[in-house]
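Q: Now give one record:
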Amino acid sequence: MTALDPSTGLRASRAGAWRRAVGFVIGAVLVAFFVGFVVFAQSIEKDEARPPRPGVAVVALTGGADRIQDALDLLDKGYAGRLLITGVHPSLTPADMVRLAPRAARFLECCVDLGYEAQNTIGNALEARRWLADHDLRGPVIVVTSNYHMPRALAELAHELPQTELIPFPVVSERLRNGAWWNDPGVARLWAGEYVKYLVALARIQLRARSAEPGP
């Protein structure tokens, strides 16, 4: 019988402890992610409600026809005097916009601006900041986007507009109106993907904020 090398048993014990520690960390991360996602999903607005007060402008992030219709409705009802539709596809002309949303015709010449530069939520925030500065608009801004996209949109906008009050107006589609996201795999996947993007956005914003802080 060959005697067992004590160093072999020690290495095996250390490897087992390392695997258990890694497994514990992975499990903790997964639990934290799941709990965070549930909190995120429960915080998403399930019903549309009019803004509690007017603003100086409306910023609508493209991504769904309902967003544009609701933004125009806010303009029509006097909640703000000017509207930016940010993230418009380069091929979309004002005439196309009128065909998609006929009510836009009465506002395009005076009160609606189409922003073509933004390609994502970061770009939306940058475009909104430039637009507000160009038109010297100072005061509360009503933000129109889908309910599940609102947390990330507000985070990006608040980063670019730290002195501006943002009033969210979340757009809720019929599919999402009942709030039972756990019964719809498609909605659950959509929201989980948005939750990941939201976490990435928060981490990036925090890193940029820390890097901008003056040294000791």
In short: The first strand starts at residue 57 and ends at 61.
